[in-house]
Amino acid sequence: MIAVIIATGLSPGMEPLNERYPTPLLPLVDRPFIQHVVEFLVEGGISRFEFVLSHLPEKIEKLLGDGSRWGSVFRFHLAHDSEHPYDILKGMNFENLAEPLLLAHADRLPQFDMAQTRPATHTAEPIMFFAPPIGPIDATATTSQDNPQWTGWAWVSPDILESLPKDLDEGAFETHLASKGQGKSSSVDVAISLSVCTYADLLASQAAVLDKKFKGLFLGGKEADDAIWLSRNVTLHPTATLDPPVYIGENCRVGKGTRLGPHATIGKDCMLDSGCTVTDSLIFPGSYVGEGLELDEVLVDKNRLINVKFGAAVSISESFILGGLSKTHLGPRFGGIFSRFAAACSLIVLWPLLLATALVLKIGRRGPLLFAEEAVRLPAQTDEMLWRTFRLLSFTPSETKGKARGRGTIKHFFLQFLPGLINILKGELRFIGVKPRTKDEINALPKDWQAIYLNAKPGIITEAFINYGASPTEDELYTSEVFYAVSSGIKHDLKLLTGYLGCLLGFSPSK
After folding, report:
1. How would you class 402 by CB atoms within 10 Å of its CB: exposed for 0-12, middle for 13-18, buried for 19 or more?
2. Which residues pair with 128 in a beta bridge?
């Protein structure tokens, strides 16, 4: 069987989200909405898909590929006008096709039985699927069951698509199909249809799936308790409260005193800081929710917050409130190679200073010249048994580090930065990162801080050193490392490196 999927990617009123996501790629619980559509259709027997794309088509193609993942064949067609995508259907060459087509819109998903509703012949009149609006999350609110709307799905004959009038928008297309079907079986009412056409629909669809109103969807993760799904590698603080239904995606960190639910969907790779509350809301993958923040009926996509009640979208500039858990844009592997190359170049230039520092220390003080402590390689697993260590080189004993007055940039450069270049060259350290720590130091951290730290990269220059000098307080150190976890990237690393060089050259005021 063949399905024609209209996935233009733009929805009126959802421009803030459409900047990053074509509408079919908006998440429904644990995966993009269009993936649920594909899996639903494959389960129903569809083996060939014709996708009509418009906005950000490369993102949809990248997700879906050629269809071999589902044992199907995918073909993609580009519509230049997202409001009138149906003209392209006339050129898809369905001649001599002796079976009806399933036409679908990738931003809606009605629940129906394909085998029971499929027309007996390819020349039959269209069969359109209608459903009531998905409705609000609030169970006490009422929606009109007497005014079903077209779901954007229909069984159609190839002849109907080949003879379509030009320049049809969706409303005109619906009218045209309705005019072709005048029999009693030309429409089918379904009980529920998921949708991501509006902010409210997106939130209500999450709730419908969590409430198990839509049957047959594939969901990742384990249902640890009734209506509480936990995916792999979730770190959940013992004091966190889960009020079902709740879904938490993989690699998430849920902090102390956090309250989730009811109807809370947390995408993968998210971090929820201590004391925050998430109710009737969707947190997009890779987002950070700050300490003590209360979210109710909202969508959060990294630093963008959308109030569903009012349809208002705002971007939060303060990363401690909302942000994205970013990684370097160059990628971890390339970033490591670049750091090692830069360290090699630096050692070629600075080796006379390194040698001179060693000679001065050898003459001027007693005891060992070079110190090495067993620091943990990052990022690391939460299981201590899997931690690997490296010998962090320094001209300073570990018990005297961080005790310099003020910023101490000159002392840091000669006693820690210069020998640390050897660790960077060996791929054990980066120029910019969080403070390298031993196993005992990591185990002494609070659990929420430890979860943040283990997912970071260690650096010889830290956010805390640039902002607070050589002797930051514990609160300053925690604040700096959380901020770095939210903000790290090539631009932010370059900003910190520039600040360090400025301090070293005396251009920045010391603290």
Report:
1. middle
2. 154, 187
Statement to judge: residues 156 and 266 lie in one domain: no
Could you tell me the CATH number of the domain that includes residue 292? 2.160.10.10
Kindly report which listed range (108-112, 290-294, 315-319, 452-456) carries the lowest average pLDDT score.
315-319
pLDDT tier, 406 (very low <50, low <70, confident <90, very high otherwise): very low
Other CB atoms within 10 Å distance of the CB of residue 284: 23
Beta-strand pair 264-266/246-248? parallel
Residues spanned by the domain of 95 = 2-196
pTM of the model: 0.66
Q: In sequence order, what are the residues at sequence separation of 6 or more whose Cβ sits closer than 8 angstroms to the Cβ of residue 385?
A: none
Q: Cα–Cα distance between 254 and 482 in angstroms, integer?
A: 14
CA dist 124 and 315 (Å) reads 50
Same domain, 317 and 341: no
Q: Are residues 340 and 469 in the same domain?
A: yes
Q: Give me 273's structure tokens.
A: 């800081």
Per-residue pLDDT of 447-459, as tens digits, reads 768 878 888 899 9
Same domain, 305 and 276: yes
